[in-house]
Amino acid sequence: MKTFILLILFSCGVMVVKAQSPTRPVLNHLALYVQDLQKATTFYRDLLGLDTIPEPFHDGKHTWFAVGPASHLHLIAGAKAKQQGDRNTHICFSVPSVEAFIARLDKAGMEYINWAGEKKKITLRVDGVKQIYLQDPDGYWVEVNDARK
């Protein structure tokens, strides 16, 4: 019995150590190269509602945002041209209500589309998640949805 209890305690200790020392990488940040840092900062801060966080460079070429408990979005000034990317390549943010977010976009005069490209329409995914797409000032695609996870 004593051996059995020790085995259980040892197993629990191993699980705790594994939980505390992840072997998989975690996302630290995404970086977007932008033409006009002020326009891009205004878009992500004021329209999307992201919170800025301190950045270490203090050179006027960077803006950092918190985008979750341990991830950041870094904007870096210096791009020569807008992006011409496909909507399949995008970053995605989840909000509690897509409709409330759309009201914010409408108030700002910002266009959005659904997955099919129809203006001012919402896509309803097969799993019930509502989603829309818009482009930031540099042409990067941004999805906004109401996914819970």
Walk me through the structure:
The chain has two domains: 26-80, Roll (2,3-Dihydroxybiphenyl 1,2-Dioxygenase, domain 1); 82-149, 2,3-Dihydroxybiphenyl 1,2-Dioxygenase, domain 1 (Roll). With 149 residues, the chain is an alpha/beta fold. The model is unreliable at 3-12 (pLDDT under 50). The chain is globular. The protein has helices at residues 2-20, 37-47, 98-108, and strands at 29-34, 51-53, 62-66, 72-77, 90-94, 123-124, 130-135, 141-145. It has a four-stranded mixed beta sheet with strand order 1-4-3-2, with helices on one face. A four-stranded mixed beta sheet has the order 5-8-7-6, with no helix packed on it. It has three helices and eight strands; from the N terminus they run H-E-H-E-E-E-E-H-E-E-E. It holds the Pfam family Glyoxalase.
Notable features of this structure?
2,3-Dihydroxybiphenyl 1,2-Dioxygenase, domain 1; 149 residues; four-stranded mixed sheet; alpha/beta; 2 domains; 28% helix; 8 strands
Describe the sheet with the most strands: 4 strands, mixed
| Strands, count | 8
The CATH top-level class label of the largest domain: Alpha Beta
What's the helical proportion of residues?
25-40%
The neighbouring-strand order within the major sheet is 1-4-3-2
